[in-house]
Amino acid sequence: MHKVMYVVLALAIVTSLAGAPRWISLGGPEGAPVEVKVLQSNERVTLMSFNLKGYYEEEVMLDGSRYVRITLPGATPILEKGMPDLPKVARSIVVPDMADISFSIKEDRSFERKSPPIIPSKGHFNRDVDPATVPYEFSDFYNGDSYYPERILDLGTPYILRDFRGVVVRFNPFQYNPSDNTLRVHRHLLVEVRYTDGGGVNVKVRKRSEKISQDFLNIYRDHFINFDRAASKYNMIPEPGRLLVIAPSAFVSAVEPLVEWKMQKGIPTKLALYPDSTGSGGDNIKNYIQGEYNNEGVTYVILVGDVQQIPTLYGSYEGAPSDPCYVKLEGNDHYPDAFISRISGQTQASISYQVTKFIRYERYPDAGADWYHLGTGIASDQGSPPDWQRAEWLRDSLLNYSYTEIDQIYDPGASASDVYAAVNAGRSIINYIGHGSGTSWGTTGFSNSDVHALSNGYKMPFIIDVACLNGGFTNDECFAEAWLRAGSESDP
């Protein structure tokens, strides 16, 4: 039975300072994320529930008029330009290899309330664009009498992530009607996703023995909310994944120590010469990787050399250079099915030095050193929520793990000297969220020349960089390449 309940509520809106989010509780404490549960999952059905604990309402002043933006912990904005700026909740589930997929809503507990007008979304733009410079635009929707989004639940196109076929379930907990400024809030949803025989879209054809990479097993458990229930029937055996290293003959002697080290660690590793073994050009490299994946299984790929030595592929949407295109190995989708990285250097000496750093980092750790428990967060003050708030979420996670201190280098006021001092003292992880250029971070202005001036020795950080252009490796030395190449064996 499909149960729908609407309750019209006249909620008083308390005037607040512009830009200060106000928590509206639906029974949960401030900041409580949306609760998504899998109640049942098998070859015929997945039953899941969505429960809203509360949400934030942020005031936005535009041309002297008051608007609001709705945000929700555990959700992301829809980002349809000119349409109401509302969040969506997206979760992935494992689905049967060959099935057609449909859904029905079994329960929908909702209420309606009068709201200030919902500000329109500015849409999607790259992180090299200042959001403040993008104007608000109101689509024709604001002149009509209908709800947006039209549907409260939808399914994405099925995709394949290496060993499993999946689908994204999208829940729209808020719908807005501009004719009378009504906000419809869906606080509880019970959804049944059904599977029927019939040969669905983007089916999974199993070609290899039922073995599974241990690293991907961890990804599946994080990515698919029904993984343990749905995948139990496969009885897959975890094993170390295979590593494929592709290098030009001029760099073989420089990379051989890394190949030997990986094999000593128990990782089956193959070194293939470019173009002797792979054939020439990006398409032939892709075909070679695909063949290795189909025949033996490949979990990791390392390309050795800059783009002049090992070419890259280009994305289908923006035409941007993209090594991950090499590892789209399953299905007609854009999910990578193996890990890929590049040791970017143009000389044997550069490759050899980087290999030395990588092996030393793994083989000779500083036992008991404090710097492994220290990290750095760097973030701008732009966005909604602002980048520094996202950096704080990451900081909280790290402090709840094994870290004792995480620097807070945030705008306004973040400087290159802050980064320089932190890295030289030793930091094992850096999280950056903000703007970027080909040779620097927008927040702090820390640049290639600063990287090459560091004196942190072998106290090397792992950097997670959410910025545009920092990884533009097809140009001159980009910011990411500077971090890889900085130093020398005599002065690391």
What can you see in these coordinates?
The protein has 492 residues and is α/β, with parallel strands linked by helices. It folds into three domains: 3-234, Immunoglobulin-like (Sandwich); 240-364, Gingipain r, domain 1 (Rossmann fold, 3-Layer(aba) Sandwich); 371-483, Rossmann fold, CATH 3.40.50. Helix content is 19%, strand content 30%. It has nine helices and 24 strands. The protein has helices spanning 214-223, 227-230, 252-264, 282-295, 348-363, 387-399, 416-425, 448-452, 479-485, and strands at 3-9, 22-25, 35-41, 45-51, 54-62, 65-71, 76-77, 87-95, 100-114, 153-155, 159-161, 164-171, 174-177, 182-196, 211-213, 237-239, 243-248, 269-274, 300-304, 339-343, 374-379, 405-410, 429-433, 462-466. Strands 1, 3, 4, 9, 13 and 14 form a six-stranded mixed β-sheet that branches. Strands 7, 8, 10, 11 and 12 form a five-stranded antiparallel β-sheet that branches. A four-stranded parallel β-sheet has the order 18-17-19-20, with helices on both faces. Strand 23, helix 8 and strand 24 (462-466) form a beta-alpha-beta unit. The chain is globular. 34% of the residues are buried.
Shape: globular
Rg, rounded, reads 25 Å
Task: Report the mean per-residue pLDDT as an integer.
Answer: 93
Number of strands: 24
Estimate percent helicity: 10-25%
Looking at how many chains there are and whether they match, the oligomeric state comes to single chain
Q: What count of helical segments does DSSP give? A: 9
CATH topology of the largest domain: Immunoglobulin-like
Quick tags:
alpha/beta; Immunoglobulin-like; Rossmann fold; six-stranded mixed sheet; five-stranded antiparallel sheet; 24 strands; globular; disordered N terminus
